[in-house]
Amino acid sequence: MHGAALLLLVLGLQQAEGRCVFNRTQEYCLCYRLTQETAGSIIQCLAASAVEFRGGDLEKYADFPVKDLDDSTIDMLGSLEIRKIIFSDLLVPEVLLARVLRFFSYTRVREMVFESCSFVGRSSWADMAGRALPIVSLRFHNVTAATLAGREQDLSPLSRWLGALQELSVTASRLAVLPCAVGRALRALRSLDLAHNSLGDDSLAPAFCPEAFTQLRVLSLRHNSLTSYSGVCGSVRLLGELQHLDLSHNALTAGTPSSPCQWPTTLRVFNLSGAGLDHVLAPLPPSLEVLDLSSNRLHAVDISLRSLQALFLSRNALPAAPSIRGCPALHTLHLDNNLIAELPRDEALLLEHLRDVAVAGNPFNCTCAGAGAVQALAAVGCLRQGWPQGYVCHAPARYQGALLRDVPTSVLQCNPAAVLAPVCTGLALLCVAVAAGLLWARGARPRWLCGPGQREDACSGAERL
Question: Which end of the chain is more exposed for a tag (fewer CB within 10 A), N or C?
Answer without folding.
Answer: C
